[in-house]
């Protein structure tokens, strides 16, 4: 890539938005609720309580999502997992409409697509609570019932997003995510990617020499990071 991939080739550009902890603040604690739900589910299926945290962290690191490790090593009932972990999340009482977010997304001069590691019902719940669900052409999500389903930061997850949104040229692809690993993977395949995090990215998750390390502490500030998409 050259010039940080900021000039897209002829064609219609597309912006892929991560959802959880990206479109809303991680300080809302949805991820903590989900983590607690996963730990409780692990206890229900008979995992050793002393090793649940360590095992779940290992699965997350190895597979991108804890649930993939549980599927591979514990043959769990995925439908029951979704009911037990995602169902009780207090999304509607915690995530509120965000008019500033809505205006920002509306003003971007690209196609708009949601790209999440969550399941489809969870993704729809969050987007509806934020009142931005009508602003996206589609959602690339993880189908936990699909054997060996792809998820970020695997390359095939990004290929899936491109295929589902009908994009063939990586230079047309823009992306925002709160995970440094997901952003790094996107940059490595040629997407222009923005890390949305209050934490400063470490050297191990940057791509010096291949693309500009675009970073913002809030998704609301995206226009200041990529002004050419909002001009």
Number of strands: 6
CATH superfamily of the largest domain: HAD superfamily/HAD-like
The SSE string, one letter per element, is EHHHHHHEHEHEHEEH
Shape: globular
Helix content: 25-40%
Mean pLDDT: 91
What is the C-level CATH assignment of the largest domain?
A: Alpha Beta
The main β sheet shows up as:
6 strands, parallel
Number of domains: 2
Rounded to an integer in angstroms, the radius of gyration calculated over CA atoms is: 18 Å
Main β-sheet, spatial strand arrangement: 3-2-1-4-5-6
**Given the structure, what is the number of helices?**
10
The low-confidence runs, each spanning 5 or more residues with pLDDT under 50, are 1-8, 204-211
- For this structure, the CATH topology of the largest domain is Rossmann fold
Termini, distance in Å? 23 Å
Report the portion of residues in β strands: 5-15%
Level-2 CATH architecture of the largest domain: 3-Layer(aba) Sandwich
Judged by helices, strands and strand pairing, the structural class is alpha/beta
């Amino acid at each position: 890539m050259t010039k940080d991939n900021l000039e897209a080739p002829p064609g219609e550009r597309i912006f892929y938005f991560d959802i959880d902890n990206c479109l809303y603040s991680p300080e809302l604690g949805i991820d903590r609720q989900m983590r607690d739900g996963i730990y409780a589910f692990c206890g229900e299926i008979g995992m050793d309580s002393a090793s649940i945290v360590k095992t779940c962290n290992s699965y997350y690191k190895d597979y991108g999502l804890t649930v993939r490790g549980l599927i591979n090593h514990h043959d769990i009932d995925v439908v029951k997992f979704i009911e037990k972990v995602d169902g009780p999340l207090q999304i509607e009482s915690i995530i509120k409409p965000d008019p500033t977010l809505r205006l920002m997304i509306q003003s971007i001069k690209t196609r708009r697509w949601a790209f999440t590691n969550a399941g489809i019902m969870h993704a729809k719940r969050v987007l509806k609570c934020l009142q931005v669900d009508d602003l996206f052409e589609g959602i690339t999500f993880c189908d936990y019932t699909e054997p060996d389903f792809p998820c970020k930061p695997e390359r095939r997850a990004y290929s899936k997003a491109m295929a589902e949104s009908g994009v063939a040229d990586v230079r047309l692809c823009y992306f925002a995510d709160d995970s440094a690993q997901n952003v790094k993977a996107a940059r490595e395949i040629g997407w222009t990617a923005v890390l949305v995090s209050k934490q400063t990215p470490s050297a191990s998750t940057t791509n010096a020499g291949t693309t500009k390390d675009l970073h913002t502490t809030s998704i609301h500030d995206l226009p200041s990071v990529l002004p050419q998409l909002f001009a």
